[in-house]
Design brief:
The protein has 233 residues and is an all-beta fold. The chain has one helix and 20 strands. Strands 1, 13, 14, 15, 16, 17, 18, 19 and 20 form a nine-stranded mixed β-sheet that branches. The chain has a seven-stranded antiparallel β-sheet with strand order 2-3-4-11-6-9-12, with no helix packed on it.
Length: 233
């Protein structure tokens, strides 16, 4: 079964300095029918105005992944980490028993556009942690590159959640397939462009949930960037 979630059906918040689309219920956006998929709890598409950002705040018991699309995201946390996250980077912060951090767009003239992703962890009260890795465009071109997994296989970052995350770039005749476990659930989020997922056309911001499907097929991309999650049901 394939369920389409249109970009225009997402929640939206405009805070002036922050414009955010919510794929699932978050903050003031509440939709009991869209509380997450499997152990995927949040996908926020955020645009941060120049010179602004999220002040220091706390999290616990969540795996938080940042995926920058354009601009630069500045990160600082209570573990002493300080980093600049740029397009191609995948950053994971394990909140565990508690962590505080801030995220800022330090550019004076350009916005930062990124995805904020939350996954429910396998265990509560783990040691907080941080990891960041860059994945070249060539590694994602015409294929699904594993960028995050529970066991860090294939050079992916580690997430303490029963999930795997892939990223891919597709245009023209480029296509890819991924075998699926029918006891799990797959979630495909189109970051930008257009693509067909198992014959279903997606435009930027659209997503599909696949349950009981044996295979994921991506084809007919038009400047498409896509993220795929393999999730505990």
């Amino acid at each position: 079964m394939i369920t389409l979630r249109k970009s225009t059906d997402r929640g939206y918040a405009d805070h002036g300095w922050l414009k955010s689309f919510h794929s699932f219920s978050f903050a003031d956006y509440m939709d009991p029918k869209h509380m997450g998929v499997g152990n995927l709890r949040v996908i926020n598409e955020d645009r941060i105005a120049p010179g602004t950002g999220f002040g220091t705040h706390g999290h616990r018991d969540m795996e938080i992944v940042s995926y920058v699309l354009s601009g630069v995201l500045g990160h600082k946390d209570s573990l002493g980490n300080g980093a600049q996250i740029v397009p191609g980077d995948v950053q994971r912060m394990s909140a565990g028993r508690g962590i505080r951090h801030s995220e800022f767009n330090q550019a004076p003239q350009s916005e930062t556009h990124f995805l904020q992703i939350w996954l429910l962890p396998d265990e509560r009260d783990i040691e907080p942690g941080y990891e960041q890795k860059h994945f070249e465009e060539a590694d994602k071109r015409g294929r699904l590159r594993l960028v995050a997994s529970r066991d860090a296989r294939e050079g992916s970052i580690t997430i303490h959640a029963n999930a795997a995350m892939y990223a891919g770039l597709f245009d023209g005749g480029e296509a890819a397939e991924l075998p699926l476990d029918t006891t799990r659930v797959a979630y495909v989020h189109l970051v930008r462009g257009r693509i067909e997922v198992n014959g279903q056309v997606l435009d930027a911001g659209d997503a599909v949930t696949l349950r009981g499907e044996e295979r994921l097929v991506l084809a007919k991309g038009q400047a498409a960037e896509v993220i795929v999650f393999d999730l505990a049901a």
